[in-house]
Amino acid sequence: MSIMNRTPSAWRTPARSARASATARALCAVATIGLWAVGCTRAEIVTLERSGQPMTVRRPALYPETIEYDRGRDRFLVSSFREGAIYAVDRDGGASLVVDDPRLCSVLGIAVDVERGRLWAVNSDLGASVKPSAAGPKNLAAVGVYDLSTGKAIHYVDLAPLSPGAHLMNGIALDSAGNAYITDSFSPTIYKVDPQGNAAVFLRDERFAGDGINLNGVVVHPDGYLLVVKKSDGSLFRVPLANPSRFSRVDVAERFVGGDGLILVGKKNLVLVANQASGVASNAAFSLSSEDGWGTARLRGVERLGDVYPTTGVLRDGKLYVIYSKLNELIQSSPEQRDRLRVEATIQQIGSAAL
Questions:
Q1: Which of 29, 47, 61, 81 lies in the 20 to 30 Å Cα band around 95?
Q2: Chain segment 73-132, per-residue pLDDT in tens
Q3: CATH no., domain 49-354
Q4: Using one digit for the tens of pLDDT, what is the confidence trace for 138-187?
C-alpha cells in the first residue's frame, strides 16, 4: 500500500474520528447480542477476594457437598452428605427441606434444570450417612431427578450395572438438551443420563483412574464439551460431547490437586475449588482462563481459604460463593464420633464475575 493512500491518525479530522468511534461502538453493540464483529470482544472478568460476612447454614450436621442457585426462587440449594437430602437455604441461612427421598443415602452433586423445572441429585454411599444404603459403602451408584418446585420424584436411575467395581458418584452437569453427565470418582467413568432417564456409559478410560478420589467436578461448556477435574492429581480434561474418546488434558502449567468443584464463567473463565488429596492441602479457589477453547489455560488468581475443606461453589448475581463444613472430618470419623459432630456449614463469598 502506498503511503499516499494512508491517513495518519494525526491528520484525521475530529469529525472523522467521532464517526469512527461511533461506528466501532455500534459494531460492538451488535457483537454483544451474538453477531460478533471484528476487533470486538466481550469482557469476562473474574476477581477472587473474600468479602462480606460468611453465612452460617442454620442446620447443624448437614454436611453439604454441593451448592447450587435456584434463580427462579432466589435460593441456594445444598446437598446433604450426612442426611441424604436436599435443602434450600434462604438469605438469612435458614434451611428448609426440598427433597427427602428414602432411596437417597449421601447426596453429592446436584444440578438445576431451570428450563424443565427439574433438580438432579447424585446418590452415593461412603458409610457416613444416617441412611445407610442396601447396596453398602462404595457400591451405591444412582441419580435421582425431582420436580424443582415440589421435590416430587420423576426418575431414579441405577448406574451401578453400567460399570463394574466400586463407585462414588460425585459431580454432575447438564447440557442445553437436559442430558446429565455424571462423574464416578472410584471408576474411571463418566455416565450420561437423558431427560427420560435412559443411562449409558459416556466415556470410560483408564487415564481417569488413580489412587483415592479421581474424577470429580464437571461443567458443560456451551461450545460442546465437558471440562472435568481429576482430584487425585489435579488434572483438568476437555471432553468433546460429540466424540468423547477424543478427550485431552488441558495444557496448563499447574496441577490442582484436591480439585473438587468447577464454576464456568462465560466461555473463557473457570473457577476451580480445591481441598485436599494425595497429601496436598490446597484449600483454595483458583481462577483460570483460556483463549483457545480450553486446549490451553493460564492461572490468573488464587484465593486461599484456610483449613476448611471447601468443596464446591456457585455464581449468584455476579458473586462467587463456596461452601464448606469440614466434610473430610465426617468421612474420616468413626461411627461413634460422627454422631457427635455438629458442624454448621458456611457459605462464603470469594469473589465476583462480570460478563
A1: 47
A2: 999 999 999 999 999 999 999 999 999 999 999 999 999 999 999 999 999 999 999 999
A3: 2.120.10.30
A4: 999 999 999 999 999 999 999 999 999 999 999 999 999 999 999 999 99
Per-residue pLDDT tens over the stretch 9-20:
333 333 444 443
- Is 164 or 29 the better-scoring residue by pLDDT? 164
Q: Residue 247 — φ and ψ, nearest 5°? A: -70, 160
Strand ranges of the sheet holding 180-184, from the earlier edge strand across to the other edge: 169-174, 180-184, 189-193, 199-204
What pLDDT is stored for residue 40 in this prediction?
36
Domain ranges of the chain: 17-43, 49-354
Residue type, 22: A
pLDDT at 43: 59
Q: Are 159 and 152 in contact (CB under 8 A)?
A: no
Please give the biggest Cα pair distance in the chain. 87
Q: Grid coordinates standing for 93? A: 441461612
Is the sign of the CA dihedral 48, 52, 58, 61 positive or negative?
Answer: positive
Rounded to the nearest integer, the mean pLDDT of the chain is 90
Q: How far apart are CA 161 and CA 110, in angstroms?
A: 21
3-class SS string, the chain:
CCHHHCCCHHHCCHHHHHHHHHHHHHHHHHHCCCCCCCCCCCCCEEEECCCCCCEECCCCCCCEEEEEEECCCCEEEEEECCCCEEEEECCCCCEEEEECCCCCCEEEEEEEECCCCEEEEEEECCCCCCCCCCCCCCCCCEEEEEECCCCCEEEEEECHHHCCCCCCEEEEEECCCCCEEEEECCCCEEEEECCCCCEEEEEECHHHCCCCCCEEEEEEECCCEEEEEECCCCEEEEEECCCHHHCEECECCCCCCCEEEEEEECCCEEEEEEEEECCEEEEEEEEEECCCCCCECEEEEEEECCCCCEEEEEEECCEEEEEECCHHHHHHCCHHHHCCCCCCCEEEEEEEEEC
